[in-house]
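User: Here's a chain of 267 residues. Predict its fold as tokens.
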Amino acid sequence: MSEFAISHDFCADKICTGYEEKLILKDLCINVPAGKFSVIIGPNGCGKSTLLKSFSRLLKPKKGCVFLDGKSIYELPTQHLAKNIGLLPQSPTVPAGITVADLVSRGRHPYRSLFGQLKKEDYEAISCAMEAMGITELADKPVDSLSGGQRQRVWIALVLAQDTDILLLDEPTTYLDIAYQVEILDCLALLNRTRKTTVVAILHDINLSIRYADHIFAMKSGELVAEGKPRDIITPELMKTIYGMDSSILYDPETGDPYVIPRSKVS
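Assistant: Prediction complete.
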């Protein structure tokens, strides 16, 4: 893996997109902070996953465009895009019987010629990715024999082996218990801090989002409602706007970060 990621100008400019006749994103403009850990929050169905699919060229906008360093991602060669942007989708399917090392090695496809063998640098990238996610000792184990948290580490290692400067992660902590969630996010935060990899993740836990994010994008109904540092934008008013939820905000005495406490409607 490269020692330091390259900073890229990565943005969505007035994109409108959806599925068939249903429009999900509406004239959405987002500039992703280079080298930062960004988190997208918002209620189910607000367009978070649709945005990541647009960012990774899985979904082409009906209007507007996504740009990487000033060039439309829809005009870039597939191999070039795969060397710059890595995506971990929701609930990826594990090929039957595949081992950890074999699955992680698939992250090296953008660097291989047709029918080409893995080279020294490929094995080094695979090894570094597994080490970064703490799964080296699992290399020969079948992925489908692992726990949920271990599997998620393997999938993230695959994306790391792709050695991209931008990582897009769609709910990487879903269905994991709190200990595994913290472990996964710690690994991603360390990668961001040490390599300056640009990380964009969708998370549902507001307080974990606040804890790890340098920058938060708050969405509702396909639109960007607010963005900025957590301590600047997380307020009871924002929680009410995007979730329809009454809440109180406390502040960490050590970091000054906000902590959201939902107000129960049951007395």
